[in-house]
Amino acid sequence: MNIVRCGNYDDASRQAYHHLLSRLRDNEKAVLGLPTGSTPLGLYRCMTQGYVNGDFDYSGITTFNIDEYAGMERNNPDSYYLFMQRKLFNGINVAEERRHIPSGLGNLEHNCLEYDRLMEAAGGIDILVLAVGANGHIGFNEPGTPFESTTHIIELTGRTRADNARFFKSPEDVPEQALTMGIKLMMNAREIIFIGTGKEKADAVRRMVNGPVTTDCPASVLQLHPNITLYLDSEAAGDL
Ligand code: GLP
Fold first, then answer.
1. Domains of the chain: which residue ranges?
2. Ligand 1 nearest atom to the CA of residue 80, by list position
3. Ligand 1 centroid to 101 CA: how many Å?
4. Rg of the chain (C-alpha set)
5. Which reactions appear under catalytic activity for this entry (predicted)?
6. Taking the complete model, does pTM exceed 0.90, yes or no?
7. Across the chain, which distance is largest between two alpha carbons, in Å?
8. How confident is the model over 56-89, as pLDDT tens digits?
């Protein structure tokens, strides 16, 4: 694991952006894996601002988001679908037909298989942007998820639902299930850019970097990835 210690959230976001930008310039048809949540917001701001400044033309890029809540209508303000439109896609020019977000509606088993098929057809993920949950989850791969998992439906833990309640009107509105890209597919990404910020992530980052590789901390599997760079602010790196 390459670890880059950054001063603060903005610095981590900026450094991660410049890393991503240099890879995109080398591969203008790259396939990206993208997360939601608070962590990537700074990176997404850099991407949209950079697009305005002419840093990069995203028209050849393909994206696959890593998760979505089950039962979530696309136009629900809490959907990751709408999150991505608002925070990234409205501000850059990825073609609509090349943006993929798992669908939490209809036959979920079918949606998972179809998502894997689409990723395979796209040639897999070139660059996966990742963050970690406070309990060590990546995407929505909660503790206990097998490392060999493909895209699947997952029961969210109480901890994750509580952590994500800040995005919802009321904690009861947080869905109990989600769809997530599996760990196997994440590990197959050719490169991973990880961002970890804030003191509430320090313990997960410590277990991810220094702990045993165990499904108890799904992020610990990233120790086995051959090409991963961690951008950590001083708080998230505080327990290393
Ligand atoms: C969330 C998301 C993940 C995200 C992680 C960290 O629940 N499902 O995709 O990477 O947990 O979230 P945050 O960046 O908001 O702390």
1. 2-233
2. 8
3. 15
4. 16
5. alpha-D-glucosamine 6-phosphate + H2O = beta-D-fructose 6-phosphate + NH4(+)
6. yes
7. 45
8. 999 999 999 999 999 999 999 999 999 999 999 9
